[in-house]
Amino acid sequence: MRYAVFTVSTPDYDPETTAVQLKEAGYDGVEWRVTDQAPSPDGRPGFWAGNRATWPLSSFVTDAPRMRDISDRAGLAIPTLGTYVTCTDPGAVEAAMRGAVAAGVRNLRVNVPGYDGKTSYIVARDVALRQYETVADIAGRYGVRALIELHMGNILPSASAAASFVSRFDPAHVGVIHDAGNMVYEGFENYRLGLESLGPYLAHVHIKNARWDAVGTRPDGSVEWRASFSPLRTGVVDVTALFRALKTVGYDGWVSMEDFSTEMPLDARLADNLAYARSIEERVAHER
To answer: Which domains does the chain have, with CATH numbers?
Structure first.
């Protein structure tokens, strides 16, 4: 496998520093974050606001050659782009795909709508399917592939739900990002079950970890639990089991780290995550 970092998790570094730091840590690639983000409310870089390793979508087509140059000079591939465009906005999708072509990148994330359980899931899914038909058509015209990430709070939190959704599309133009960390919050399935369900649509893998904590007691006396992100070694995700399942289905593609924990300094967690993942991959590879 080859390893990258999704730059949503490197908010302290500007693009040039990000590329240098990832190469020095031993990574093979970088998954750049692309979105018009809000400024940080306290002026300090954050994962989702004020992130210094983020490229604006509004100038992406113009910035894309610089992105490619920074990555190339550091010797880093760009396996996919972490855009925040959604199938509800085909204009933004096309702009992101134009930028991907300019950057020489074939894969980019194109989100599906959120889901809060207050309206019909079937209706929401069917609307999104029609919208994603447009996404797939645009992807075909640009020769790229739109990737749907398994994500809590949207209509496709599990691998089997995503597999059903994408089955009508050409896997050359639509794929899925497996994310076991998000599935701690919502959508957990046996890893092999999910990966086999995705079949040719398994295009990319995100790895991070999360945990559940008891945060209080409800009026009826039951315990209230809440999920939050954790260091890769200490969360609910069984990373070894995930690598075994990836080996079983023959996946040997890209794995992107996406660590939202802050217990360790950024440079230390970048190095430790890679060392941990590679040690597990090597151990699993030698299992009979």
So the answer is: 2-285 (3.20.20.150)
Q: Name which of 140, 134, 132 is nearest 106 in CA terms.
A: 140
Give me the torsion for CA of 25, 232, 285, 256, rounded to 10°. Answer: -60
Between CA 177 and CA 208 the distance in angstroms is: 13
d(CA 245, CA 41): 41
Residues 6+ apart with CB under 8 A from 131: 87, 88, 90
225, 215 in Cβ contact below 8 A? yes
Strand duo 33-34 + 82-83: pairing? parallel
Which ranges of the chain have pLDDT less than 70? none
pTM of the complete model? 0.97
17: CB partners within 8 A, 6+ apart: none
Question: Using one digit for the tens of pLDDT, what is the confidence trace for 136-146?
Answer: 999 999 999 99
